[in-house]
Amino acid sequence: MTKNKEFKNTLLGLAFLSPNILGFSIFTIFPLGFSLVMAFSNWDLSQHNIFHSNPIHWVFFDNFSALLSSNEFWKFFKNTLFFMLGIPVSIAGSLMAAILLNQDLKAPSKKIRNQLILGSLLILGIIVTIMTGLKASVISIFLSSIFTLILMGGLLGGSTLYRTLFYTPHFTAGVATFILWKKLYNPQSGPLTNFLQPVLDHVSIFIEFVGSENIGFLKYAAATLCFLSLSYGLKTILKMRKELELGNGSFAIAYFLSALPSYFIVKWSPDNPVSAVLQIILIGTLFYYFASFFKVSKPKTPIDDGIGKAIWIGFISMTAQFILIGLCNLFQNIPAIMQSPLSTPNWLTDYNWAKPSLMFMGFWASIGSNQMLLYLAALSNLSPELQEAAEIDGASKFQKFWNVTWPQLAPVTFFISIMAVIQGMQGGFEVAKTMTGGGPAGATTTLEYYIYDEGFASGRLAYASAISWVLFAMIFLLTLFNWRFGNRFIDE
Amino acid sequence: MNKLIIFCIFMILMGSLYIILTEPHSDDSIPTLYWVTDANPTRYQQIELFHDWLIQNKHTTPEGNAIVRIKLETGGIDNKKLIHGVSGVAGDLIDLSDIDQYQKLGILEDVTEQGKSLGFDIHQTFPSLKPSLYFNDKQYGYPCNVSIHSCWVNSETFAKLEMEAPPEKWDVETFEKIGKEFVLKANKEKERQEVFFMNKPSDWLLIPWLTTLIRSMGQSTFNETLTDSTLDQGAFAEALRLNLKWVEEDHLFPSSAEASSFNSEGGFGGSLMSLFLEGNYGMITTGRWVLVRLRDLEEPPRVSVSRYPFKYFENSVVMTRAACIYKGSKHKKLAALFLSFLASQTYNEQIVQCADALPSNPKYLHSNEFLKPIHFPNEWGAHEVPARSAQEISIAETKSPYISYSSIVKVIREADEKVQNHISEPVEAAKEANLAIREEIQRNLKHRPKLKKQFDKDKFRQNQINRMKENGEKIPTSLISNPFYKKYYNDKK
Amino acid sequence: MKRSKSQFVLNNLVLTLISLLLCLPFIWMILTSLKPLEDVGKAEWWPKIFLWSNYKTIFTTEHIHYGRWYFNSLFIAFCVTFLQVITSSLAAFGFSRIKWKWRDRIFLLYLATMMVPALILMIPNFQIMIEMGLIDSYLGLIIPASFSAFGTFLIRQFMMSIPKSFDEAAEIDGANSWQVFWQIILPLSRPGLITLTIFTFMGNYNSFFWPIVMLKSEHKYTLPIGLLFFESSQGQQTNLLMAAITMSVIPMILVFVCLQKHLVKGIQLGGVKG
After folding, report:
1. Which terminus of chain A faces fewer neighbouring Cβ atoms within 10 Å, N or C?
2. What domains appear along chain C, each with residue ranges and CATH number?
């Protein structure tokens, strides 16, 4: 290419860019540069404004060191990470939804379809009659009619109706739905409380009937299951390492994830013989697999082979263990809890419930999100040959998914996780601002909310800028990390 | 593609046209003031009253129109007071409950002189509010309303249990004793506790409640010169402990779980008010605005008022939402008229009538409309209590120039939440709170040389005071900046 | 492949059940919006009387300019979408179909800005708005939102996937760059444009913090601020609040139902390649 042509092209490119780049420089680049520079100063609205003109001076890294040594920052960082634990769950939910939607949903023939529609109408008719006879509430009849309607829509139109309904919560997410959920979570009169309280009342009666001490014994079952899921997870990854499906690095990650709950068990558990025994068993298991990892022959494989699977196995094992520990703890405390009748929590204003409540809402809004659409697209592009080959080999459904479908979905999963991580790191302001105000006791304050709090509520702009740039650095590093491993992950 | 773009441009033009046509055309001869306040329907009524008042008092244009008009600016104000204020674009009148915080930014207009000439100086309101309205000996605002928090008692609930309504003043022991008796009697023969002595003071009600308790033990949130937090000196921990005890041991207040089990029973969302009316709460902690709802009822119950309980020093926290004039306003003189309207009979009578807090001007506390409203004999006898509290034992909130009030509120609330959720023991929580405030003060001082200078001066004063205390000398009021200690040392001698 | 009938029925049943569960909040919202105030806190979802007048009330309540807020939201979202799609597609063309020296570096800069929390941009932007005298004006909401890195990124991905041969053929026919852009590339990136249209429209329809900071007059509020205002001034009246929320959600659902086919295609094309 000649110099002249290149110059012409540059001009041309810039000409096309000019409207965008003009606005972009004014409203993004300039403010960004400004905030970066200001992060090194003592810029504070209460000292430097149009009525007060104290000189601004440089404090260099003071803001950053103050930030990194403040408890608040780390607390809110942990909150942000806690909220991000919802990401794998929502990805899994989206994947499940996509798989379901990707099934053949249209009736095989017109005849069968008509039969089904008639059948469902008939069943609805019978149900409504019986319910009316039983004097069931109008709402249950209404809901069963809606159920039938959706079903018929699905039978007639295939996945479109389901997809629309799945996607609606994500699509409408905003101040309106946040206020809606605030009302749903109302501890006095919200429908969630109204629905759960009778259930809890029955549970109370049931527990009293069985005797809370007897229920308490279930904690041994939970502890055993916890041990089993740990050793099963470790056994699986060891086997996979032997069969060269995992690299050393991937093995380490999966091992770390599975072992994490044990650390918390040791840290949290009360001093009693049962938990002591459990601790010893868990640590013993960990050591056993750690030792056997060194004993098995380890042919050379790339360090991060199979990292996607490793993360999944590790995560599943970790989640299962955490849930079982929680149950164990619950059963342990059942006699104490049963002192007063069970009741629903103050969802959004209870320190321990606020985060899960918001995460549950997030899950509702993210099952049918863009993630689901991306998975749908990827699923429809899967190569049918591989699927058929697997079927001929007589693979079970799960094996087919794990060994054939999942690896082919890797690029999409990778893309989705990067986007979700970026969004998760810098999210949480709108929800917290409209629903909880960052409380109770800072339980729902994420880093983004912290920026708002420092910048707009206290006016310490330099400090708020410093938080933003630290956050940027973390997101950048995470993305790099994802990129490094993700590329390998795609090549699998 | 071309058609689509033309269509879009057409739509945008039509929209713009609509906007231009519907733009409320502004008559430039009459200036408009923006009043930054909360989204309360009575504000519109007050604007109309102001308009009438202007005409009555001959503040008119040659044509006989009111000289100025007011518009409300309400949405999401907390987020923008600061950023608008420092950028020169805030409303002309700003309602603030923390003047010192905003005057630190230098965004408010000094109204000391105008207050004297237009009749809205400190003598036209409660003297105890001075710390809330003044900053460095200059007045910056006049109250829109004044609030004293008390326990509002549903006398009928007590009568049903054959108990007398609680006395006007009570110490913590009496409070506990009556409370226990009430809870015991009311929940007799009930499977689970359904009736509580009082709602648990939470959210923004928590601050006056805890402050009153702490002060009643002769301590404050800050030391005499406001240079250091004194939350770790025992009173705060004790107040937190009492709060927990009254929930878990004495069951005077519902726990959060119990509060939420009041689920579907009441109308109006099972809210505080209907629980109060139905007798689930013997009394509720609130301000005078509780009457706004009560007066809507066909048969409002008989009510009486008791002060917050105290340990040994009786006191009451007085708070205010004050209207201030923005320094960047183009119509400061006209805005001052509004402040003088707030001190006028017209406005105060409206406050008395609509029962929204105490009138700003104590002159109107003695009228029959206030003490014995004709249509509401059920309230007779109740109004004297907050009026007396405001005039006799009230003290403004303790704020410090070295830390924002909102941070203090946040720290105190967190401490209570920690204790209630069993995350920390009271003593521990108090220590943590103390430390959090100290750290924040240090952080604020670090990059503000001017503030540091003032701090060092105050610190010197504090050392002086400490020495005097050791020697048992009397501490002159001039040395003290904390409004609590001013009154406390004065009353003690 | 064999298809078993029971499997197919089961799939449909499961999907219907999940759909119903996901819609429950909306069903509650609509039913509550029709209740009289006394029944709002009751456990029974079904209204005893259907109070359709609630919907009239929200449009006629004094000081709640609901109709106007509705118009504002739609108008602002419309303008922003229009401008953003134009500027983004122009820029995307510059980033994808023309080769020039600094192209990829500048594009990388665009991408990197998406990683910085947008909240921190607001204060400098607010000062810029003051300088430009755009406080409390529609333009102040429209202009800053009209330039986006995300939109440019999205459309660029589409344009990258169009084979080079298209423009080469056009250039041989003597078309200049503008004609290539306008007549060939833009029509081919239609799914991308529609995707961006929907995202931008929704994003601005829901936009919340910037309007709060920018607007002063009640009649200029957009729906999200209006809803917050509503909640703080009449939040006790849950039935009216729910009616207001229902009304504000309806346009979004309509937009989605009308454009969903394109959206699904757009996201799938753009995302997988991105």
Report:
1. N
2. 52-273 (1.10.3720.10)
